[in-house]
Amino acid sequence: KRKQEETPVSLIRKIAVTVSPSTPGTKEVLSVVRKQPSALYKIDKQGIAKRLWHSSDELIYSLLWNEREGKLIFGTGDKGRIYSVDKDEKVSLVVQKKSELVYLLLPYDSKIYFLSNNPSDLSIFYPDQRFSGEYMSRVMDTRTISSWGRIEWEATIPSGSTLQFQTRSGNSSNANKTWSNWSPPYQKKQGEQALSPRARYVQFKVMFKTQSGKRSPLLQKVSLFYLQANVAPVIKKMEVLPPNEIY
């Protein structure tokens, strides 16, 4: 049985006392109030509040302002998550723990130590660490108008990490406004049919994402298949030889 002082409870017990003028005495009513939605608000100098984050199944247990990054960091339960809020009020999930509750955040130098329990754990979080990145390929020339086949890749993708590919195409050697928009994302490990329009030039980009700074996806190889359009032959040179002369 867990000790109450070690584990914040998810249910709040409330004693309500009601007094009725027609009935002497008081009546005790014991009720159980289920966990209410949790929210994070920003209050400006005029006292106007704006909700930045809310959840119906997570409670905020710890808050920390990171002056170095200009971000607000907060830990929640019962899913063991740490979120950050940047200056543009964008909320991002930066850490997912196996522990249920992140109940203490302690800054030290460029690191943040955080305590969690169920099970108990002490970990380090680097606020300036990037959990996503993007790679864009060079513009590739197929020499003529081509139709695109499958895009496939070889990669090591640890648990909690993802790779997401997109393609675009055009008929100028520099990607400009005449090019197509980026395709919908490709994410299937076995590869997918490239959806960009027929064109001579093509380019791809890949988004790397991870929930842990310790293990990131590693991309080894990308293959994009294409079929060139049939082009009429072009005669570049014609030479007529004299009789009885063999070339």
UniProtKB/TrEMBL annotation:
Biased amino acid composition, Polar residues: 164-184
The annotated region (Disordered) lies at: 164-189
Q: Give the species.
A: marine sediment metagenome
SUPFAM superfamilies associated with the record: Tricorn protease N-terminal domain
Q: Kindly provide the name given to this protein in its UniProt entry.
A: Uncharacterized protein
